[in-house]
């Protein structure tokens, strides 16, 4: 038994020494997955950058509705190219459409009434007025004939006609004459047609209703979001059934409001908007001498940049995160470059990059 224990102890000692040797041995460092961004120039300014679609001026177009409502239908997909005026999104417009139909009917009714006033006198009404004049003239003639007969009889024999009967016949003629005069005036009024003031009032009423109808129709058109220019739909940040307003669409992840649709430009290149700290601005070269290079994070890709323009407005450094968390007022100057997009590399607007500007 003792002969077996001694070899086993020796083997355990050798194994322990070997394990200690392996544990103390320094392992070689793993090569990095990619090389970090490095300065390609003898002297340069570092800046954070963000990729964006090429715009003649400003940034991507953020589209917000001018009226609030529930999304009824989304007509485009992300990545789709659209022309100016292309419908992008429909809001529920049932209430506004009913309002438009109501005001259209009111405007049409006012127009019909205006035409009626302008078409006066109506032929049938004119014929009635003429007939009334003829009837009053006949009544007057009958009363006058009766009065003449009574006067003749009275002149022949005053006792044959009483004074009261003669006076009544005289009054009947006067009444018939007055009625004839009223009928003639009524005929003249009918021939004159509608009063000018009534026509003018109705014209204004019709014009007011037409303007109300036009305004409602214009508001109805706002329930359809259309593309303000040619471009590519970069983001649709609403879904059918969700409620959106002039502040945009509520994002449950960020718990903030975002544009309903973001529209970019359709180009084979992107822009890089980099932000240079204000303390480095004296080192920025003149436009004709600006050269820059960007590094794509997470890769060894480095691409040259072409200077486009400087946005001449120094603003607080909140652009990259859309939040202002700094306790001090750090300000930056946006400088826009252009980068040709390699065919074998995927670059997307909104992607952060590192930029070195040679000075």
What do these coordinates show?
By secondary structure, this protein is an alpha+beta fold. It has 4 domains: 44-54 and 267-358, Elongation Factor Tu (Ef-tu), domain 3, CATH 2.40.30.170; 62-92 and 223-264, OB fold (Dihydrolipoamide Acetyltransferase, E2P), CATH 2.40.50; 98-117 and 199-220; 121-193, Helix Hairpins (Orthogonal Bundle), CATH 1.10.287. The chain contains 5 helices and 17 strands. The strands form 3 sheets. Strands 1-12-16-14-13-17 form a 6-stranded antiparallel β-barrel. Strands 6-5-3-8-9-10 form a 6-stranded antiparallel β-sheet, with no helix packed on it. Strands 2-11-7-4 form a 4-stranded antiparallel β-sheet, with no helix packed on it. A hairpin with a 2-residue loop joins strand 8 (243-245) and strand 9. Helix 2 runs antiparallel to helix 5 (196-221). The longest helix is centred in the middle third of the chain and has 34 residues, at 123-156. The model has no long low-confidence stretch (mean pLDDT 86).
Secondary-structure topology with pairs:
Elements: H1 2-24, E1 44-53, E2 61-63, E3 69-74, E4 81-82, E5 87-91, H2 94-119, H3 123-156, H4 163-192, H5 196-221, E6 224-226, E7 231-236, E8 243-245, E9 248-251, E10 256-258, E11 261-264, E12 269-277, E13 291-296, E14 302-310, E15 315-316, E16 331-340, E17 352-358
Antiparallel strand pairs: 1-12, 1-17, 2-11, 3-5, 3-8, 4-7, 5-6, 7-11, 8-9, 9-10, 12-16, 13-14, 13-17, 14-16, 15-16
Helix pairs in contact: 2-5, 3-4
């Amino acid at each position: 038994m003792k002969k077996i224990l001694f070899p086993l102890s020796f083997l355990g000692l050798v194994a322990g020494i070997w394990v200690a040797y392996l544990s103390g041995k320094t392992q070689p460092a793993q090569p990095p997955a990619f090389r970090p961004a490095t300065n390609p120039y003898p002297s340069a300014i570092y800046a954070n950058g963000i990729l964006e679609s090429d715009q003649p001026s400003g940034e991507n177009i953020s589209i917000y509705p001018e009226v609030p409502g529930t999304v009824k239908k989304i007509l485009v997909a992300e990545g789709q190219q659209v022309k100016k005026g292309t419908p992008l999104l429909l809001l529920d417009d049932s209430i506004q459409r009913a309002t438009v139909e109501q005001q259209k009917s009111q405007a049409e009714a006012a127009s019909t009434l205006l035409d009626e006033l302008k078409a006066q006198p109506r032929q049938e009404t004119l014929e009635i007025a003429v007939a009334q004049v003829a009837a009053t003239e006949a009544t007057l003639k009958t009363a006058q004939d009766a009065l003449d007969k009574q006067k003749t009889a009275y002149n022949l024999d005053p006792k044959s006609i009483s004074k009261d009967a003669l006076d009544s016949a005289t009054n009947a003629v006067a009444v018939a004459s007055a009625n004839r005069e009223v009928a003639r005036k009524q005929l003249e009024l009918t021939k004159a047609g509608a009063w000018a003031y009534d026509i003018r009032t109705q014209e204004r009423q019709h014009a007011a209703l037409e303007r109300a109808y036009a305004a409602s129709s214009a508001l109805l058109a706002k329930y359809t979001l259309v593309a303000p220019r040619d471009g590519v739909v970069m983001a649709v940040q609403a879904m059918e059934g969700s409620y959106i307003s002039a502040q945009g669409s509520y994002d449950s992840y960020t718990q903030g409001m975002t544009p309903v649709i973001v529209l970019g430009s359709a180009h084979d290149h992107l822009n890089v908007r980099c932000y240079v700290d204000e303390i480095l601005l004296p080192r920025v070269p003149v436009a004709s001498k600006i050269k820059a290079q960007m590094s794509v994070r997470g890769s060894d890709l480095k691409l040259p940049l072409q200077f486009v323009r400087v946005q001449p407005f120094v603003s607080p450094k909140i652009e990259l995160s859309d939040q202002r968390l700094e306790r001090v007022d750090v300000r930056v100057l946006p400088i826009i470059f252009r980068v040709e997009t390699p065919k074998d590399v995927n670059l997307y607007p909104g992607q952060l990059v590192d930029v070195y500007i040679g000075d």
